[in-house]
Amino acid sequence: MTGFVWIESFEGRAVSASWEALAAGRTLADELGVKLAAVVYGENAREIGREAANYGADMAFYCDDNAVAEYQLEAYAALLTRLVKTHKPTFVIAVASNRARELMASCALDCESGLISDAIELRVDEGQITAARPAYAGKVLMEMSSCSPTTFVTVRARAFQPLPKDERRSAEIVAVESVAADDEISYVAEGIRAELGKVNLADAAIIVSGGRGMANNPKALPADLGGEDANVWKAKEGFANTLQPLAEALGAAVGASRAAVDAGYIPYEHQVGQTGKVVNPDLYIACGISGAIQHQAGMRGSKIIVAVNKDPEAPIFKLARYGIVGDLYEVVPALTKALRAKLS
Question: The pTM is what?
Answer without folding.
Answer: 0.82
